[in-house]
Amino acid sequence: MEKFEELSFEETVEVKGGLTWAALAGAVAMGLLLEAMMNPKSTIDAMKGGWDRAGELEKYAGL
C-alpha cells in the first residue's frame, strides 16, 4: 500500500480554501442559471440594462 505525504497546515488551508472558493463560485453560477431558466425575459432585460449602462460609462469615459 502506498503511503501519502502529509500536507503541512498551510498547504491544507490552501487546498481547502481553493475548494471553498470553487464551491462558492459554482453555487453562484447555479443560482444564476436557475434564475435564468425560471424567468428568462427578466434575466435578458436585466442583462440588457447592464450593457446599456456599461455603454454610457464608456461614452463618458471617452473609451
Taken as a percent bin, the fraction of beta residues is: under 5%
DSSP, total strands: 0
Largest sheet: none
Number of contiguous helices: 2
Structural class of the secondary structure composition? mainly alpha
Protein name: Class IIb bacteriocin, lactobin A/cerein 7B family
Organism: Indibacter alkaliphilus (strain CCUG 57479 / KCTC 22604 / LW1)
Layout: helices, strands, pairs:
Elements lengths: L8 H30 L1 H22 L2
Task: Give an overview of the whole structure.
This protein has 63 residues and is mostly helical. The chain has one domain (9-61). Helix content is 83%, strand content 0%. The protein contains 2 helices and no strands. α1 (9-38) packs across α2 (40-61). It starts with 8 loop residues before the first helix and ends with a helix. 0% of the residues are buried. This is Class IIb bacteriocin, lactobin A/cerein 7B family.
